[in-house]
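User: Please work through this fold.
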Amino acid sequence: MRSRPAIVTILLLLSTVAGAQEYYYNLKFRLSPKNFADTVAIEVADGRIYLPVIINGQPHRFLLDTGASMGAIFTGSPLLAPPSASAPSVGYAAAVPQPVGTITSHDATGQARSTEVLRLPPLQIGRLTITGYHANRLSRLSKDNTCEGIIGFDIFRKGLLCKIDVKNRRLILTDRKNHFRREQGYEARYRLRRHVPYVALKPFGWFDEAVRFDTGDRAFFTISRRSFDQCEEQWGDDVRRQVQGRTLGSQRISHFGTESTDEVAALCLRALKWADFSFRNVRTLTAQGPSAIGSALLDYGTVIIDPRRSRLVFQPYHGDSQCWVDNRLPDIYYIPDSQGLPTVGLVWEQSEPYRQGFRLGDVITAVNGTPVRSVADFTRYPFIANQTYTVTVRDSRGTVRQIKLTKKQ
């Protein structure tokens, strides 16, 4: 395949790296064995899919992210640690990631950075071995150090077919081009944009929206603000009847920061169409950047990825041609500020958090006097139902105040 400069979409936080030669996106890594099919046990946690990966004989935990064009390795991974007295340097060069250059990466909001690319040691996923796999070096999105990297969509572009079955906690991998051909389901052809798959879904009537299939995104569906504006202008009241609220804010966290503050619309879509299948009562928000359908889709059925025919096949767990999603959106969204502190990115005025005193731009600094230093620190704080906590916040003018927060069941 003729290589070309890559504009890479990666959906986790990226770190800026300079001083290496320009890297060109390619699929020169190798897969073995040939003519195989294998079932791999997966872990599903916090709305994401994790793969057990063996490197240098040791187990590692990688996120399966179809919204990432290539792999990633997180700063802080043991794979990046230099040799020590307990880990001698014999064979060190072959056992650790090797720099191969830098690449320009774009995040979900269109911001771009130069990132370092590393060639990883051989990876083993079930019976599959991946040799010469390339990965961006990334900073972590949170302090959770149990996930060490990303397996991106490039392994499917290389020719692997896959069925993702969250209900049974398994991934079926094969290089046999007809392995899933006789399986029934709702087929959506995809096109690649920046090396990741986009399918045409219908959020309003006959309007075709290019939607990124992104297992790295926990949400069910997020619609591009630009597309929503276009639909509202074209169909007017019919679209507005599906709007449940509007406010200023931002809720999409991308690799190089968060989307800028703008008007956000909350919608309850009567139907989101995937081919001839309908997802009913889908609650979603508008966001900057492209539309995406995320890992919550897999709560309702399996998805077959067939790169030989550029198709995604949705197989509902139940035999009907529609299902009710009827999901609930959070009342408040937290985003990191420039120092990574949890900040109110969006809060609905009719919500309980707003009545308690949270406002757009509030930076949360402590709970009951205990400092919080990240969004993960706050969202994973061990709140006990029906107990009242004192949350310290600092507003955009620097004023510090206390909010009494009672977590309900």
About this structure: Helices lie at 92-95, 154-157, 225-235, 237-240, 352-356, 375-379. The longest strand covers residues 262-274. Confidence is low (pLDDT under 50) at residues 1-20, 88-93. The radius of gyration is 22 Å.
